[in-house]
Amino acid sequence: MFKVHPVLRRHLRYATRTARKLARKLFQSMLVHGPKLERQQVLLGRFVDIGAELFAVTAACARADGLLARGGNNKELLSLVDYFCRSSRLRIERNFRGLHHNTDRQGYRLAQEVLDGKHDRLADGIVGRMD
């Protein structure tokens, strides 16, 4: 493996482990939902958000490593990348929790009721009707 600063190495190891976890969770969702997974847009959005965060962590570490190799300001650069990666971890973990603990079904049912006109009374006086 390449010689990488220990701070960056820690975040890159996290990204590697988490990418594997993401692949496992996506595969499990494919088994649970089957071909109907494509209809689970909110669930798929969480997977995409996790992947985007992992890409951002990896890109930030790679950029920082390149700057460090050219003799950049070590302390400031590392503290900035470390902060970004730590905050990204929080967003990733929140999205992983959201895969199973969410209100997606309730939100879907409510959206269907709104489309069926069951909640029109709530819009009275707020939104001008276009009849």
Describe what this molecule looks like in 3D:
By secondary structure, this protein is mainly α. It has four helices and no strands. The mean pLDDT is 90.
Keywords:
131 residues; mainly alpha; 4 helices; 72% helix
- Compute the number of helices: 4
Largest sheet: none
Q: Specify the structural class.
A: mainly alpha
Count the E strands.
Answer: 0
**pLDDT < 50 runs, ≥5 residues:** none
Terminus-to-terminus distance: 67 Å
Strand content: under 5%
Rg: 21 Å
| Helical amount | over 70%
What is the average of the pLDDT values?
90
Order of H and E elements? HHHH
Summed up, what is this model?
This protein has helices at residues 6-33, 41-69, 74-98, 104-115.
Topology:
Layout: H1 6-33, H2 41-69, H3 74-98, H4 104-115
Helix pairs in contact: 1-2, 1-3, 2-3
